[in-house]
Amino acid sequence: MRPLSATLTVMLVVAAWSATPARAENSLRSGEFVLHYSAIPTTTLTPEIARQYQVTRSANRALVNIAIRRGARGADSAVAAKVSVAATNLSGQRSDLRVREVREGDAIYYLAEARFAGQEILTFDVEAVPEGGATMKVSFRQEFFPQ
Predict the structure, then answer these.
(1) Contact criterion met (CB below 8 Å) for 136 and 79
(2) Nearest Cα residue to 115 out of 81, 77, 137, 89
(3) Quick check: 127 pLDDT over 90?
(4) Contact assessment for residue 36 and residue 24, using Cβ atoms and an 8 Å cutoff
(5) What integer is the mean pLDDT of 94-114?
(6) What are the start-end ranges of the H helices in 20-122?
(7) N or C: which end of the chain has fewer CB atoms below 10 A?
(8) 35 vs 24, 58, 71, 146, CA distance in Å?
(9) Which DSSP letter does residue 52 get?
(10) Strand (E) positions, the chain?
(11) Average pLDDT over every residue of 126-141
(12) Mean per-residue pLDDT of the chain
């Protein structure tokens, strides 16, 4: 059986990839660091995974996942960082999200939950400062649909 962190990572990567067909990968490279980001509806998580990671499964919630890696692909490693995430809807309502760090074995990632109402497009502003690195900023949009 695969560890839950691997299961969650695979689910988030597949969901992010399928949600953005124009992009092969949601990432930002800065020097030796790569910031990976995605947002998915929390209902795409199984109840077991949601419970394990203390995520609220709801038709009006999104899960943002941030991970930072150092090094070349295949020889990279997880890096701790100071991460902040804000979500803004099309009406301009901005919400700073509570970000929490998850560590499992060699994996380090950051999770945040955002609320949305009905069919909505959210813009996520991510700022991360990896240990030993400079500030990395990325903004991405994701459309969510009620289920």
Answers:
(1) no
(2) 89
(3) yes
(4) no
(5) 97
(6) 47-52
(7) N
(8) 14, 27, 11, 28
(9) H
(10) 27-30, 33-41, 61-70, 77-78, 81-89, 94-97, 99-104, 107-115, 120-130, 136-144
(11) 97
(12) 87
Give me the amino acid identity at 115: R
User: Can you read off the two tokens belonging to residue 112?
Assistant: 């945040």
Encoding tokens for residue 7?
Answer: 């299961």
Q: Specify the pTM.
A: 0.83
Q: What is the structure's pLDDT at 9?
A: 52
CA dihedral sign, ordered 69, 25, 126, 61: negative
Q: CA 79, CA 12: separation in Å to the nearest integer?
A: 18
Return the minimum-mean-pLDDT range out of 12-16, 37-41, 54-58.
12-16
Q: Position 112: which residue type?
A: A
- One-letter amino acid at 105 equals G
Q: Are 47 and 136 in contact (CB under 8 A)?
A: no
What is residue 10's DSSP assignment?
A: H
